[in-house]
């Protein structure tokens, strides 16, 4: 099989897939009788046209970086972790328990503890599917889907029966103490004398997400464990032959993956809602799949794709506000991106490979 | 708990299991042919929307059913295109289909009806009515058997009976016809089917389209049988429960009947007794709702009989070059 140049593989194919996904989205907008150009204008202005828009865009981006990295790490081990939604929800439970258990004096103490709680709960929720896959051969995709539903039921129970403050009708935990509230980016800008993003939820967790990108890159490409994960994902028999334990790699990769998904809770539960509410994840776990696919399973790609989806998410909200296009347009765009960059990858790749092969023959 | 209550719960279980059964059998065809399908949910949702819309526009539940089948079949075609023709990842394709249906139904529903993603309520001939079986009223006074016949067996919509008839039919097709043998073979060892001169692609497309048709009936039942119209996200995870039932049934038709009845019964009990008091412990409704998923994980773990999927499931077939 003749190979394409790397740049075509890494940049050209995803861009063509993305262009296809967006053209069909434009057709969908046309079909419901709206103007795609007008819609794009509203989205760009709403999401990127002001520091207020950017504040929300970056807040969503932070969520998607975590869930995208989660899908990515598992993917390198040849595992499709579709359970980011449940793992992030459990991460929220971890954050809430840590923050409600102790009277934290300052957010700087609460943040590391909450992050550990979030990662531990997320990782724990990925542990059972991982172990079942490695030891009992149950497919991790099916078990993580089931665990998403079990997590939703569990959270529903915990919020209604255990964490709900006395006298409250709302299925949500008590608000976290003001001392644990994370500094917003707007506060930081204010400290520097700048006015940026007033009343937006983007907070210090954004920097944790950026750091996570770097750490994941180091883990996957610069450590022994990362090498083992990639070897195992590329060829399980070869990895086994080289003395890599399937159980160890499956479990570790899923623990890291679940932990990353859980860490999202630092942003949405601790940073934004400042209490645990029902369905706090709002589908971000699933968007992680699109983000990882589009980002070609590289942290830098994940960062860019998360930014794109952050823009789409905030822009979609603006669309629903200012036009008659419902928010669900974003779900359609998300579906098309997953379809074209994931499932229909070969549709773009096969003609391109043929094209490059033809060009090479001509050149030779 | 008296006899009448038991009958009511069983009756409700039969209604609730019908979409699960249809979707479960749908998945059975697809997965037995080696095409994994986690997009049952999306196909049902799309079918529920198209069937409710057409039934509302035409006033005919039958045209609605056809539209439902067409809607789900279109999604199935997409899944076939991605996972058979372009040899893409079947799981990713399924995920995409779920989102596509979830978004498109609301988008189109808002555009056409302007009710925030709902369709207007259906009534009269736009819904499938309940069928009273012959002699139901005459037999009612007979003790035990009478009420069972009149309440439980009679008085469902046609699609319920279709769903139940699909079980022996599926068994017969899979185990007693040439098509069924080839279908099972292509899910276990496609190369051998190819060697015998039978097209793997055509067989798999056939299975995927049957899956679409059955999901279409399931969706139409949801929107025009059990309820009166389409509501946003009305499948509410039923496609995944059907998937769970399929694994629980170990990809076999008669077991699928049992598994979907069990899951339908759990839902019926959870609806009837939100907090089930067993005397020593109170079972919250959330637990009953999560039980199908928990049971499936236990089955998958192989602690209660092992569930082994079709061997070639999830892998695109590449002819040797």
Would you give an account of this structure?
The complex is a heterodimer of chains A (364) and B (321). Chain A is mainly α. Chain A has one domain: Orthogonal Bundle (ABC transporter involved in vitamin B12 uptake, BtuC). Chain A is 76% helix and 0% strand. Chain A contains 15 helices and no strands. The two termini of chain A are 17 Å apart. Chain B contains 13 helices and four strands. In chain B, strands 1-2 form a two-stranded antiparallel ribbon. Chain B is mostly helical. Chain B is globular. In chain B, helix 2 (40-58) crosses helix 11. Chain B has one domain (3-234). The chains are: A mainly alpha (364), B mainly alpha (321). The interface between A and B is large, with 51 and 48 residues.
In short:
The complex is a heterodimer of chains A (364) and B (321). With 364 residues, chain A is mainly alpha-helical.
| Poorly predicted runs of chain A | none
Largest interface: A-B, 51 and 48 residues
Structure class of chain A:
mainly alpha
Q: What overall geometry of chain A do the principal axes of the alpha carbons give?
A: globular
Number of distinct beta strands of chain B: 4
Characteristics:
heterodimer; A: mainly alpha; ABC transporter involved in vitamin B12 uptake, BtuC; 76% helix; B: 321 residues; two-stranded antiparallel sheet; 13 helices; 3% strand; globular
Secondary-structure blueprint:
The complex is a heterodimer of chains A (364) and B (321).
Chain A: H1 6-31, H2 36-48, H3 51-76, H4 84-101, H5 107-136, H6 140-163, H7 185-191, H8 205-222, H9 224-234, H10 236-241, H11 246-273, H12 284-294, H13 299-322, H14 329-343, H15 345-363
Helix pairs in contact in A: 1-14, 1-15, 2-3, 2-13, 3-8, 3-11, 3-12, 3-13, 4-5, 4-6, 4-11, 4-12, 5-6, 5-11, 8-9, 8-13, 9-11, 12-13, 12-14, 14-15
Chain B: H1 3-32, H2 40-58, H3 61-85, H4 90-113, E1 130-131, H5 136-139, H6 145-153, E2 156-157, H7 158-176, H8 178-188, H9 190-195, H10 200-226, H11 238-248, H12 253-272, E3 275-277, E4 282-284, H13 285-300
Antiparallel strand pairs in B: 1-2, 3-4
Helix pairs in contact in B: 1-6, 1-7, 1-10, 1-11, 1-12, 2-3, 2-4, 2-10, 2-11, 3-4, 3-10, 7-8, 7-12, 8-10, 11-12, 11-13, 12-13
């Amino acid at each position: 099989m003749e190979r394409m140049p790397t740049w075509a593989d890494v940049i050209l194919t995803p861009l063509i897939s993305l262009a296809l996904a967006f053209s069909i989205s434009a057709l969908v907008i046309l079909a419901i009788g709206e103007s795609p150009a007008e819609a794009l204008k509203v989205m760009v202005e709403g999401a990127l046209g002001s520091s207020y828009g950017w504040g929300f865009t970056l807040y969503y981006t932070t969520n998607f970086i975590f869930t995208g990295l989660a899908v990515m790490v598992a993917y390198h081990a040849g595992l499709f972790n579709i359970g980011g939604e449940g793992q992030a929800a459990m991460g929220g439970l971890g954050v809430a328990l840590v923050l409600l258990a102790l009277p934290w004096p300052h957010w700087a103490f609460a943040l590391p503890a909450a992050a550990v709680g979030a990662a531990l709960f997320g990782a724990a929720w990925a542990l059972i599917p991982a172990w079942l896959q490695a030891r009992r051969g149950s497919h991790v995709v099916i078990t993580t889907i089931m665990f998403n539903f079990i997590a939703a039921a569990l959270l529903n129970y915990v919020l209604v029966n255990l964490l709900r403050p006395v006298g409250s009708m709302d299925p949500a935990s008590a608000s976290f103490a003001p001392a644990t509230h994370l500094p917003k980016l707007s506060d930081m800008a204010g400290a520097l004398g700048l006015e940026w993003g007033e009343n937006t939820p983007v907070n210090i967790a954004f920097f944790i997400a950026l750091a996570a990108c770097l750490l994941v890159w180091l883990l996957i490409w610069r450590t022994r464990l990362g090498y083992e994960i990639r070897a195992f994902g590329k060829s399980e028999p070869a990895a086994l032959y080289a003395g890599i334990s399937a159980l160890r790699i499956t479990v570790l990769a899923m623990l890291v993956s679940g932990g990353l998904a859980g860490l999202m809770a630092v942003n949405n539960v601790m940073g934004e809602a400042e209490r645990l509410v029902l369905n706090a994840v709002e589908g971000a776990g699933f968007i992680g799949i699109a983000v990882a696919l589009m980002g070609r399973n590289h942290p830098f790609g994940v960062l860019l794709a998360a930014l794109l989806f952050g823009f789409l998410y905030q822009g979609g909200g603006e669309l629903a506000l200012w036009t008659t296009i419902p928010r669900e347009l974003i779900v359609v765009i998300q579906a098309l991106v997953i379809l074209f960059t994931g499932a229909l990858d070969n549709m773009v790749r096969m003609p391109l490979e043929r094209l490059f092969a033809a060009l090479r023959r001509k050149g030779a | 708990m008296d006899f009448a209550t038991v009958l009511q719960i069983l009756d409700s279980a039969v209604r609730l299991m019908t979409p699960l059964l249809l979707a479960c059998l749908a998945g059975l065809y697809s997965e037995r042919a080696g095409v994994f399908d986690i997009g049952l949910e999306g196909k049902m949702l799309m079918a529920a929307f198209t069937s409710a819309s057409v039934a509302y526009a035409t006033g005919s539940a039958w045209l609605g059913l056809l539209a439902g089948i067409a809607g789900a079949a279109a999604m199935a075609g997409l899944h076939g295109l991605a996972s058979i023709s372009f040899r893409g990842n079947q799981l990713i394709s399924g995920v995409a289909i779920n989102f596509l249906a979830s978004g498109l139904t609301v988008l189109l529903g808002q555009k056409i009806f302007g009710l925030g993603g709902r369709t207007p309520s259906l009534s009269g001939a736009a819904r499938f009515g309940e069928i009273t079986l012959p002699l139901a009223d005459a037999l009612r006074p007979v003790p035990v058997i009478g009420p069972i016949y009149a309440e439980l067996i009679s008085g469902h919509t046609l699609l319920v009976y279709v769903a139940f008839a699909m079980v022996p039919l599926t068994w017969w097709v899979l185990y007693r016809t040439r098509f069924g043998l080839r279908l099972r073979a292509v899910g276990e060892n496609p190369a051998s089917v190819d060697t015998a001169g039978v097209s793997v692609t055509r067989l798999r497309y056939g299975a995927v389209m049957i899956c679409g048709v059955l999901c279409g009936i399931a969706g139409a039942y949801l929107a025009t049988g059990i309820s009166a119209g389409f509501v946003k996200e009305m499948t509410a995870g039923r496609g995944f429960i059907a998937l769970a039932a399929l694994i629980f049934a170990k990809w076999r038709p008669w077991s699928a009947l049992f598994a979907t009845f069990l899951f339908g019964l759990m839902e019926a009990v959870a609806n009837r007794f939100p907090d089930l008091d067993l005397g020593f412990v109170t079972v919250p409704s959330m637990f009953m709702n999560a039980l199908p998923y928990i049971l499936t994980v236990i089955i998958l773990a192989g602690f209660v009989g092992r569930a082994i999927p079709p061997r070639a499931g999830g892998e695109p077939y590449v002819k040797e070059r």
